[in-house]
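Hi X.,

You mentioned you wanted examples for the new student's onboarding notes, showing what a folding record looks like when two proteins sit in one file. Here is a clean example. The first protein comes first, with its sequence line followed by its structure tokens.
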Amino acid sequence: TLIPLRVGDLLHPLTYNRIKPWVRVRLADGTWGEIPLAPMYVDAMPSLQDSGLTPDVEATLSLSDAVALIKRAGWRTPKRLGGMTCHTAVKTIINEVAPWLTVVVTNPAVSTTLPSEYDVGEPGGDPWADVETICQAGDLVAYGDRDGVMRVEARPTTTAVRWAFNEGADDCLMVDVSADVDLAGIHSVVAVQSDSEDVDPPVVGWWEDEDPTSPRYTGGGHYLFSGIRPNPAVTTQSQAASVAERIGATMRAATQA
């Protein structure tokens, strides 16, 4: 039955079955094409109503991706990750809060290790925020692919991403795109500081916008600085500088056409 009555039923949100939606679009030649979207998960009990065609019942589903469910799960108990490599720590977090997810880790060429005293899991905290912090320090990315697998791998060696879309093709889905950039939130100087008892005194890495064509160019003596950004996963000055540079490059890209 499609009516969820207990955990284990096909559409029960706690069964964590993957659902892969498809969008049907009319193509330029008049035929119909079916576009698969990324797998999603039922995130609430379906809304059921009589369709008016006995004995049919209509079910309305609310779906979320894996990242949204990880964020919503939150932490309940602390988790010690001290001494782990960053990619192992990310997999540990995901397995802890979303054991129903398949996680594939591609070991980076150079592994970064967390400080010996490194804990996550403040009750009510956001596990995905911890994943992002560790990925920053380890130069990693974590994302869900088109098959619903969560992947952890080295950050691609490309220029900073300006725009990223998960879905869309030349002739379907994406019909209008607009974006606003709040320049007040884009800074010309970024500082990242270690925030661990293992690193005493703390190390700081800096980045500043030295491009004369940039609206946030620092060569004129004017700076926009939001304060030091602590990162508990950073252990070396070069690592802090690398994290600051990636943050700054992303901000710089947002000002470009």
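Then the second protein repeats the pattern, sequence line and then tokens:
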Amino acid sequence: AALASFLMALSFFLGGIGFSFLSGLALVLLAIGFEMVNLGPRYPQQVDYEGRRNNIESKEEALFRIRGIPAEGKPIVLWLGGSQTWGAGASSPSHSTFSLLKAKLERGNQQWVNGAISGAKTIDQLSVIRAIPPARIISHVILVSGANDPYNHDYPLDLEALWNELRGRGAELFLVAEPSEPPLRTEYLEKHSQAQDFSRSKGLSFFNPEAQLLRKNLEGYLWWDFVHFTDLGFQMMADCLFSALQRFLRVHPSGNNR
């Protein structure tokens, strides 16, 4: 917008000092062109699971989808989180971190489900777990958490409530600190620290990808905005998580108490 305004002002100035009309008009058209480009997406290029652009699921739509996942008779590997985990910013669903790792790590005796909901806080994940009928086995849960809880003083208590719910379902939890674009906000760093402390106290698997992503950030173009990846960012996140998640699934092949 600033560049467009500058070009328009320049065209009027040049016209005032006798610059040709056509040259001034060309600058005006160039300014309008820049302004039209500036009207493009300022929020991540969202693609839902039907392939429709700019149509991220609402909480109600997501829960409806999760309740309707086909019963394949296999233990569920459930991903929980917010819009980043859902895949906001990816050019297609296949480019999300979930889909990239599913393609590499899902075994024939597992059913991977993306249960992430845009804007969902940690405590909101309970509604996702409860949307899956008790008869369905949830063997593993990958929770990417923190970005939607920056000012939540009850964050450790919410993690506790979620963990208790998962233990009742016999699920093993892998807790991932949700990354964001550097420099990291103090509120996010605090949540990462609380998540790590909670994991240690419960003997849970924990992974913080920030340090690896920070090194890779020098390659550029990882972020749409402060918390949503581009396709390259999703690939980098998947690369960071791969070994730790592979180890988690190998150490806990059938979930908790199964």
